[in-house]
Write a structure and sequence with these properties.
This protein is an alpha/beta fold and about 300 residues long. It contains nine helices and ten strands.
């Protein structure tokens, strides 16, 4: 399978001041998909502009025609499956069936405490994530759902007419631990990783590559345990967090080498961040556009 190249456009610009242009340009450059982060605020952008993911994607759907759109990623930190499902079905309709839901367990950042709650423990995040994905799968696939769980409930939740994409829009499950990988194997049309955070902090590119290889092998094991062919799951690498993150977009050759090595591990989609000056995602825009237009054809 040919490698697909996608991008993440952070929602930090007003729509009239560059927001619209970026999404339209992503389609013009031939990206397979353009995603955005679903946070209330995020890292160094916390004290600046930051807009909501679902309205941003709705606006992007209205000004593009072919580009797939989605979140990388949505989490339970401030979402409830019932209300999220209604928004996703509406978004899938507006886009004509171009939405992918990237979904993860969430973390301990600003989203974890903005609603004035204590951050969840790793175990509680995993427990909630399991229930969240399980219920959301039903809500997006069935006309009426009643459910009573430890964390989430639904009483005759109606979602008619359902998604344009059948039986529901695809899930791209972000996971590295055993429970998350089991969810990806059971519910995911795609699996997402950013690498191993511990290795990314102090490791080498080779150590990171090996860690990602091990994650992919564990996904394969999780699929085998339920009788699913791992080849049926797209494998998505979100760049910008591995040890060589500052060099991946230095040149076309550097990116092709990076992407080619990870394609050998079975990755079908590589996601790069849209350049943002004076940030961790700063990059030469001309090189970025060259990569967008030429890299996929060189990675076989």
């Amino acid at each position: 399978m040919s490698l697909r190249l996608s991008t993440v456009i952070l929602p930090y610009r007003r729509w009239s001041e560059g927001g619209r242009k970026a999404w339209q340009r992503a389609e013009q450059l031939g990206f397979h998909a353009a995603y955005t982060y679903d946070h209330l605020s995020w890292r160094s952008f916390r004290d600046g502009p930051w807009f909501g993911a679902v309205p941003t994607l709705t606006a992007a759907a209205a000004v593009t025609d072919q580009l797939r759109l989605g979140t990388l990623v949505t989490s339970p930190n401030f979402r409830h499956p019932v209300t999220l499902a209604k928004e996703l079905i509406s978004l899938d309709d507006v886009s004509g069936g171009r939405i992918t839901l990237g979904i993860g367990a969430g973390g301990t950042g600003f989203d974890a405490t903005t609603l004035a709650q204590e951050p969840w423990t790793p175990r509680e995040r995993a427990d909630r994530f399991t229930e969240f994905v399980t219920l959301l799968d039903r809500l997006l696939s069935e006309d009426s759902v009643s459910y009573e769980g430890d964390f989430y409930s639904a009483h005759e939740a109606r979602n008619i007419p359902g998604c344009v994409q059948r039986p529901r829009l695809p899930f791209a499950v972000a996971a590295t631990g055993p429970r998350g990988l089991r969810l990806a194997a059971q519910y995911g049309q795609a699996w997402v990783t950013t690498g191993n955070p511990k290795v990314s902090e102090s490791g080498t590119p080779e150590q990171s590559f090996q860690a990602i290889r091990e994650q992919a092998e564990k996904l394969s094991d999780a699929c085998a345990a339920i009788g699913r062919n791992v080849a049926d799951i797209d494998k998505v690498l979100l760049t910008g967090f591995t040890p060589e993150r500052s060099r991946v977009l230095d040149s076309l050759d550097a990116f092709v080498d990076f992407a080619g090595r990870h394609q050998e591990l079975g990755f079908t989609e590589i996601v790069v961040h849209w350049p943002i000056a004076d940030s961790d995602f700063a990059a030469d825009e001309k090189v970025f556009e060259q990569i967008a237009m030429e890299a996929a054809a060189q990675v076989r």
